[in-house]
TrEMBL record:
GO cellular component, one term: cytosol
InterPro entries attached to this UniProt entry: Ppnp (IPR009664), RmlC-like_jellyroll (IPR014710), RmlC_Cupin_sf (IPR011051)
Protein name stated in the entry: Pyrimidine/purine nucleoside phosphorylase
UniProt EC number: 2.4.2.1, 2.4.2.2
Transmembrane feature ranges: none
Protein's job: Catalyzes the phosphorolysis of diverse nucleosides, yielding D-ribose 1-phosphate and the respective free bases. Can use uridine, adenosine, guanosine, cytidine, thymidine, inosine and xanthosine as substrates. Also catalyzes the reverse reactions.
GO molecular function, one term: purine-nucleoside phosphorylase activity
Pfam families: Ppnp (PF06865)
Similarity field: Belongs to the nucleoside phosphorylase PpnP family.
Catalytic activity: thymidine + phosphate = 2-deoxy-alpha-D-ribose 1-phosphate + thymine; cytidine + phosphate = cytosine + alpha-D-ribose 1-phosphate; uridine + phosphate = alpha-D-ribose 1-phosphate + uracil; a purine D-ribonucleoside + phosphate = a purine nucleobase + alpha-D-ribose 1-phosphate
Keyword annotations of the record: Glycosyltransferase, Transferase
Length: 104
């Protein structure tokens, strides 16, 4: 899906890591929530209360998922899942454009 129809966009940006990671929240009539954002090169650790599906639209990064000892290479056009109530690490090597879906 290249675009979202009939959604609400929260104007206030989500800003993390001194502005190196930013996103905007998109709310759907069904109650579904997504964020669209950009990550600059760097190393980051995130926590999530809900299950997440993170689609990397462009860029390159490595991700260390909960319970794994090995980093996984991810590039534009790929996605990964993070379970609820977990944390994960990312090493972003190229500016990365992403869409994160929160699953309740």
């Amino acid at each position: 899906m290249d675009q979202f129809e009939n959604v609400t966009v929260v104007k206030k940006a989500n800003v993390y890591f001194d502005g190196k990671v930013t996103s905007r929240t998109i709310l759907f009539p069904s109650g579904e929530k997504k964020t669209l954002g950009i990550m600059m090169p760097g190393e980051y650790e995130f926590g999530t209360a809900d299950k997440e599906i993170m689609e990397i639209l462009a860029g390159k990064l490595d991700v260390l998922l909960p319970g794994n000892d090995e980093w996984i290479a991810i590039a534009g056009g790929q996605a990964f899942e993070v379970p609820a109530n977990a944390s994960f690490k990312m090493r972003v090597s190229e500016i990365s454009d992403y869409c994160c879906s929160f699953i309740k």
